[in-house]
Amino acid sequence: MTIKNSLRSQPDASGHFGSFGGRYVAETLMPLILELEKVYKAARQDPEFDAEFTQLLRTYVGRPNPLYYAQRLTEALRAGAPEGPNGQKKGAKIYLKREELNHTGAHKINNCIGQALLARRMGKKKVIAETGAGQHGVATATVAALFGMECKIFMGAKDVERQKPNVFRMKLLGAEVVPVVSGSQTLKDAMNDALRHWVSNVHDTFYIIGTAAGPHPYPELVRDFQSIIGREAREQILEIEGRLPDMLIAPVGGGSNAIGLFHPFLDDAEVKMIGVEAAGEGLQGKHAASLAGGASGILHGNRTYLLQDEDGQITEAHSISAGLDYPGIGPEHSWLHEIGRVEYMPITDDEALASFQKLAALEGIIPALESAHAIASAEKVAPTMDADQIIVVNLSGRGDKDIFTVADALGVEM
Amino acid sequence: MTADRLAARFATCKEAGRAALVTFVTAGDPTVAATPAILDALVAGGADIIELGMPFTDPMADGPAIELANLRSLGSGTKTRDIFHLATTFRARHPHTPLVLMGYANPMLVRGSEWFAGQCRQAGVDGVICVDVPPEEDAEIGPALRAAGIHLIRLATPTTDAARLPAVLDGASGFLYHVAVAGITGKQQAAQAAVEQAVARLKAATDLPIAVGFGVRSAEQAAAIGRVADGVVVGSAIVDIIGSHGDAAAPFVQEFVASLRGALNANSPHYRETTA
Question: Mean of the per-residue pLDDT values for chain B?
Answer without folding.
Answer: 94
